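Think of the structure tokens as a kind of shorthand, similar to the way a musician reads notation: each symbol stands for something richer, in this case the local conformation of the backbone. In the example below we present two proteins back to back. Begin with the first one, reading the sequence and then the tokens, and try to describe in your own words what changes along the chain.
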Amino acid sequence: MKNSLRCFASTRRVILAVLVVLFLIAFSDSIFALQLKSTGRFNRKGVVTAISAGQISVRHYDGETNVYKIQDKDESAMAIGGAIGRNPAEIMVKGSLSRDLAQSGMLVRLEAKMTRAGKSVKPIKTFFAVQGDEDLRVDAMESLEDNTELMFTVVGRVIRSTGSGLLLQVPKSRFARNGRMEIKVDAEGTMEIEMDSLNRVIPGDTVDSMSGVTYSNGDNVIKTIEITMSAARKKIETVDSWHDQLVQKYGYLSDECVACRLVKSQHFHVYTDISELQAKVLLAKLETMHSLIKRYFGTQPKAAIECYVVQDFANWNGDTSITATARTAIENQSGVTISGSGPGMMSVQSGVDGIGNRSRSSTLGSVYRSTTPRATVYSCDNHDIVQHEAVHAFCMMAFGATGPTWYSEGMAEMGKYWRPKDVSVNIDPVVIDYLTSTPSKSMVEIVNEEQITGDSWQAYAWRWALCHMLANNSNYASRFKKLGISMMKGQTVDSFYDAFGEVENELAFEYDQFLKNMSNGYRVGLCKWDWKTRPSKLSSKATSKNGVMARKGWQATKIQVVEGQSYDFAAKGTWQLSEEGDSVSADGAEDGSGHGRLIGAIFNAYELSEPFDLGKKGRFVAPTDGQLYLRTDDRWNEIADNSGQLTVYFRLSKKK
């Protein structure tokens, strides 16, 4: 039987690529100064209205709401105006919260009076949520009550809250022979939090102080910030950090590196030396990703996906299961997926078969089909890279190939970013800044057939952007899925251009809008364009009635306006700009900020005019011919939690 091998070398995780850049530009704090000028400093207070990776929105007490860039402690870089460098903020977050907000996996520290057998004697009033990797411990401090009771300092992981307090995981000792300890907590007890990260900040928390720099491109960058967590929260949650939530969930497991062994889940067999904690978290991510991809494609591999995930080769005892190619990738902190049917497999480079002929199955880029679809993932211990490679393995085993480079790598990047019940943009903020601040690549460039895998993180970013937009926009999602499956199955397909040729102009317009407005939290499905509503010019006696929702982007009206023509309008109803926000009219927030105001724009010949204010009632003069579109004046990445709808009436203005 003829054997073949196909390697899909992923780029290093975007953040690792950025670290390389940072290494090459040592002392890069000054890189922004080389390309951008400081135009001033700010010192503000307010309330958090939204937060995502790399940025935070704050409503100030004068009613103004601004978006600020911020580099959190666990982010390796930030980008300002296309310049990449380090600019970490000094962050202090504190809070005094209900004891009932303690969650499974959370690390806590406390002092409690207990018997010598480790039994809690008196309910404590306060315990502290611990940040970082403080070691679990139970230390006897001093004897009390004739040596029958002791004061203990305890650092433990919450297993669960009980009716009377907390059940903690602690080291086994004569005070906790089974590694568990139940601590009584007063019904009015509090959990105190002090941390230097934003990962538990949510809208509604108070910004006590904030200072930073405004740059010449308009970016406001935070240098220092102090936040008090609102006690009104219903739970402790991490913002945009599914990884942190999983770590907290399985935090009772050991995080010590161990010898190589096999760990299994329903769809993955993983040979690894990573810790029990990291293995559990990784398998949870992989299984969630597997279920999402299965749901998307409507099929799955018939066998479990085999993975080798290495933290330190010293723990592998000379294991020879990992090939030289895979070992090189792992040592370079990267990954590779190898497919084939057995020994003597032939190495095949991107888009070329074993003889050196270009694959005939597509004109869009590299495609290689395995006659016996089987794939094995080899990766360093970076979860994102494992997930990226696992998408390649899934597609190879389910369809026999992964498609051309742009599709293969774009979908693999999507796979590592997919989250349960979340279709919003949620990627590294450095990638966001790169995609939105540099000249955009055309779709023709992205699907070019000369591309190879492992070229650059920038190329992967463009492929992700195109795939994410197509997969999540119902105007194109069905064609995109059909095209992808056809390419991977090696069925007769023409090209990307044949698949989307009849909607080429529409797709190009929406792609440009996506790149222009995208940020973390952006929902493609809520911002898709309405190509079905057909407009007509208003007659002198006609009134046009149009609905516009707060939770969508630009929405088509039935009106074809004429340049220079004056139109009267009136908007009825209210809408909300957050789940807990007050209702506002078409005039927007009453604080004078205009946030949530009704605005309009004119669409003509696949171009959109600059937005213009409308409000609750008034008159406007059409700046150009075209179809009138409406929306609420809210940030594109914050409309998902909006609600409510306005009814807007238009008529031709009467001549005076």
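Once you have a description of the first chain, move to the second and do the same.
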Amino acid sequence: MMHKPFALTIAAATFATGAFAASPIRLEAEDAVLADDHKVVVITDTNASGGKSVDMKDGDLEFKVTVPATGYYTLWATYQIPSTSTNKIQNLTVNGVSAGQISFGISDEFTTIKGAGKIKLTAGENKIGIVHSWGYVNLDYIELTEYEASPWSLSPNPVTPEPTESAQKLYNFLLNNFGKHVISGVMTERPFENDGQYTPQNYETQTELGYINKASGKNVILVGFDFLHASGKNSDQQWHQGYTHASLEMAKTVWKAGGIPQFNWHWKDPMHEVEAFYTQSSGNDPYTEFSITKAYDEATDKWKTSSDEYKAIVRDMEMIADSLLTLQKEGVAVLWRPLHEASGKWFWWGTDGAKPCVALYRLMFDIFVNQKGLHNLIWVWTTDEASDALDWYPGDEYVDVVGRDYYYYPRESNHSSLVGSFETVKELFGGRKIVTLSENGSVPYPDEMKADGANWSWFMPWYGDYAMEGWANDNTAESWKTVMNNEYTLTLEDMPGWDKYEMQTTVTVVAKKMAPTVQLVGRDLQVNLNVSTVQVSIYDLQGNRVLARNMSQSGAIALSRLARGPYLVRIQSNGLTQNLKITLK
């Protein structure tokens, strides 16, 4: 169970539904703090709402809000993190159950972010907790607004040009089941028998797969592998090569059984100076100091093709591409998830920042697809929910699926749907990409996902005691029985086999309606239309409409007469409504 927050007091705020019907409800952070709670500190600050904010340090906050009817809401957070610090993550709970996490990016001034795109509140009093994880956030207040669904606009085709038949089938399968089912999966630790011959395992003999089958009577569809030992200082040694060979052979076995192989790549130091992929800031030892900037000039956006570092990067990429080509020749398609968790900066491919990482991803795409001829990959990008998430994004033309890696910290068993994180990721990327739980601890329960509309494409708990009973019991035999025997969960037993799979030509999840794009530029609201007309309305925090405009062409709306502070912008077009929170300075 989620531990109880330390701070437990705030006068109950009442939220009237249907009026913003719907004025935003503001809950000040300082009102949620117990006087004797020394793990948080109230700060007097004239720049903060109400003249105060809360430095959360390693403490928790809990707010109370009363609503007359059960429904879904959007949560906003106004906060500050000095540039001398780093991005932070806090856990979000609703009535004691996890609703996801809130990612806070660096901001020297108070800024407002969408903390959770969708949370469920029940009729009567509700408790919203912001619970320390990687804390030390200076929180000013949170606000609640009425949740309004936005449309999906998913491509019917993968981003790889001229994809193989197997890649087309795999992408079509993901697209056709998105929103209808969740695809079962798990990460594997060791893909070969401990027999000295590196004999590849199968569904019956592999540890994590066997555990799930024994617990539930079912087999997962997606099986995760790692090119962990395929490159790096010791990659030419027999054990390392045996590991990679067994991974590739087992991937073929999974595909032939009707399953889906997924590969990620814990890419070790390309210079082969140290057997490590972690950075010093991760706290792990050994660590590598390899820097992309030695191979890439950020100022000119050019690769230093004569540098040893560039040549090492290309050598490693070509080596991995050759391994994947062996699968393509066998008609196997792969979920390919490179450069994962980059924005955390605990891996070397993220330590130099967003732009070098994006350049590295795009270089890989070019080498894999255009130079090596890999057309069997479905490309998966792992994001967080921070305000700078799009800075790290390689671009729509390079990504098929956007994934979220989610672990509870402090670690615990919790099978909630994570709907807040699902909706936030969906909206960050404009509903243009399939959204998945690309790596996780506890698997969300299917009934929770269905009820909340947290339609993750697949789940993939990490190996070892994340996937099996252990000290934290993230996933137990009983929980696997619950997950795998629910009609919402697709298992290997549901698969017809890829040779028998029939492509679906009509996928109901794809929405044809397109919404305008809106952004704040200085004190002007820039509206770019891709529809005939839109209605733009701006409300203050009391729910008063302070400006309204009908627009039939793209342009800017001057906001110079409005006072400083936060506003809610409502854009209506094509029968769709979307809300945008802005702050005028």
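Compare your description with these statements about the second chain. Residues 1-21, 507-514 have pLDDT under 50 and may be disordered.
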